[in-house]
Structure formats: structure tokens, C-alpha cells
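Before the break, one more example. Copy the sequence into your notebook; we will annotate it together after we see the structure.
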Amino acid sequence: EGSTTESSGDIEKQELEDVSDEDEASFHDTKEHFTEPAVICGSVRGAADHADNQKENENQLDDVERMHGDTEDCYSRYAQIERRKKLPDPVEKEKGVSLWSMIKDNVGKDLTRVCLPVYFNEPISSLQKCFEDLEYSYLLDRAYKYGKEGNGLQRILNVAAFAVSGYASSEGRHCKPFNPLLGETYEADFPDKGVRFFSEKVSHHPTLIACHCEGNGWKFWGDSNLRTKFWGRSIQLDPVGVLTLEFDDGEIFQWSKVTTTIYNIILGKLYCDHHGLMHIRGNREYSCKLKFKEQSILDRTPHQVHGSVEDLSGKKVATLTGKWDDSMYYISGDFSGKLKDCNPSNASLLWKRDKPPPNLTRYNLTSFAITLNELTPGLQEKLPPTDSRLRPDQRHLENGEYDRANAEKQRLERRQRMSRKLQENGWKPRWFHQDSENGSFRYTGGYWEAREQGKWDGCPNIFGEFNEELVDSSE
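Here is what the structure looks like once it is written out:
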């Protein structure tokens, strides 16, 4: 079996250097290419061919929606939970604050250690944001099904689409998720999606979040840390950690996330971009390399992603192309550097982003993200006292109670100062353990069993009142 654990910076640097000039020049607007009659196989065709193309794309969209629907039908036997469609109306009027005025003295520093007013937060935590990567988990259900049928190529194509889809929710999102307290947890039980997710903050410095998710025939887990740097006009976020996907038949895929940069911190329209190389390594027949193109100032086609699937011999057997905020397509064969010469009718749609909700706020949360902090009927009584939904500053922000949210955030940040002392004194995560060899965190089990029995004896009330003198003594 091939190794799935290589993730060093040297390997990634070499892979980026291996991308040829021809590959670099191949980036173009895939949405235009696959929906407009401008260039098809290198020639201009008539309106009839364009109509056929449009019909083909509509059929592909129907196919994706149908496959998505088929997956949902698999879980229709479960009770359907009615989830909210919008956030609560704010109680208070928002007070604008200049981001530059808050961070101008921290150029070149790690911004995870900079305390910002609650105005710069969105009403979800980093633990909940991890679950956003599972919004399109039906792609993994589909990958599992293809693998069972012996179609390994379709399996990795859907895994690649899933790896890209996790970035779609970041478009237009300019607020920072809440930094969890040490020992803070989050659960997401979505029987209608066939997934059960759990995450915990397992380290304060460095900030580490571990997660574990179980689906239909697959498990997904990982731990992550963000190295952040502020360069004056931009903020760079470099993810550290490996994500692992294991199917019940033993096939494993691993990958690391690409770099995210937030631009125009001082002047101009704030926007984020994801760029770099993502290498999805499999332990069987296929692997995949995806390049997220970095957006330039004059770029007319931002958010482009291109890549290919290779077999064990290194032969490129499929080409992927798309945009991380819109859709991903694949074409059988090697079309690296020559996608413009490809007939769009040969491209098959793998994934299409869901439409945004009608009731947008300044947070620009997706329909899925809007549900993550919701306390559905009967849920609060089942949660441990460490769950993010019970965090008071986050709840006040969601309700638009900004003054109360700020006061609570400052109170909890004072409590957070004890976390380093707790770690130094031997504090251990409740639900994850650290591998002594590679340092990664794995779920130990027992959370859902404790939830079933309502036994949270070992879970402290981390959001409650505390002795201020303990904070002073820990500094």
C-alpha cells in the first residue's frame, strides 16, 4: 500500500515547482467555457450547438440534484428536524469599528493572540466552522457507493470535489469565528444528512481543534491549527494539520488545506482568496493534485481550481476544473494545459454550490451555517456544559445584543488566560488523545454514549462564573 502521510513543506514546495508554465496558462473561466458558445473544440459554433450545450449543462445540474436527492432519500426514514432559515432579528443597532485601528500595532504578529471586539466576530465558533466543511457530505456518500461498485476513479473524483466544496462557504465571509475556550466542544447530529460530527479544542497555545465525523460507510477526522500573519494590507492564514478520510472498505485519503489570504485590510473592498497546492493522497490506486490559483488584481476569472487524477504509474487519467465558490467538473483523460481545446459536452459536473439564503446579513452565512448555532427543541437539555451553543457572548451576538456580547467576551477572555496554566499542570482533552508518534489527535470514543445517558460528570462549566484571583495568579 502507498503511504498517505507525507505532508512536509519541502514536498509541497517541490510539487508547486513541478507545475509547468503550460499548466499555469490553462486557468480560465470554466463557467463561461462550459456555458457559453465562445470556444468549443477551438472553433465557433452556431446557436443550435449552443442550445444543445445549454441543455447538456441543465441535464448535468439535474443529475447532481437527483443524486443529492437520492442520498437524502436514504435518510428519509429518520425524523426530519425543522431547522431555522434565518438568524434572529438584532435587538440593537450595530456599531461600526475600524479593523485597521484595532490591528495596526500587530503587523507581522500572530493574530490568534490579538483580542478584537465582538463586532469582528460571526456568531459561530471555530469548532462549528469545522463542521461547515461537511456541508456537502453527500459527495462522500456517493464516493462510498462508487467504491463499493468497484469504480475507484469516480470515488476519488467525488472526494476531490468534496475537498474543494468546503471552501465555498467562505465567499463573502469577512468576520472571524469565535476562538473556543480550552475544552470547549461542539456536536452536530444530522440524521437527515446521515452524519454525526464532534469537535473539541484540545490545546490553547498553540490553538488546536480536533474533529471526528461518522457518515454512511466512512469516517472523517483531523486536527488543525492556523498560523496567521498580518502584513499590513493583508492577513495570511496557513493551515497546519492533515485531514483523513477512511472508507469502511479500508481505502484512505489524506490531504492538507491550502493557504487563505484576506486582502484590503486598510482600504478597498475586503475579500479572501484560497491558493496553493492540495495533494490528495490515497493508499490504493489513485491520487489527486489540485492547484488553487492565486487571484491577481486584474484577474477576471478568480477562484479557479484545476488538477488531475493519477494512477499508480503516474499516468493522468482524469482532469478536474472549476471554481471553489461555484462548481467542479471532470473530464476523462489528460487535458492539463489544454482545457480550452476540450469540448464542454465531454465535461461532467461533480458538484454545484447551493444557492444562498434569501435573508442575508452582514455575516453572509450560508443556509447550512445559519443552523449550526441553533438550539432546536429539546437539544439544550442533552448538551454538555462545554458545547459552543451555550457560550453566552456568541449567543448575545447572534441575538444582536452587542454590548452584552462584548462584556461576556471580555469576561471569558480573562478566564481563557488560565488555560496555559492548566495545560502546564497536565490538563488533558476529554474526548481526544494525542498520538505519541506523530502528535495528531484521535477521537477516543464515548461522547455519544455519555450523551445518551446524560452523564457529563467530567465536563466542567467552562462558560460559568470563575474566581478572578485565579486569573491573576496564572499570569
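The two ends are 50 Å apart (CA to CA). Residues 62-377+432-447 form a domain with the Porin fold (CATH 2.40.160.120). Try to locate both features in your own notes.
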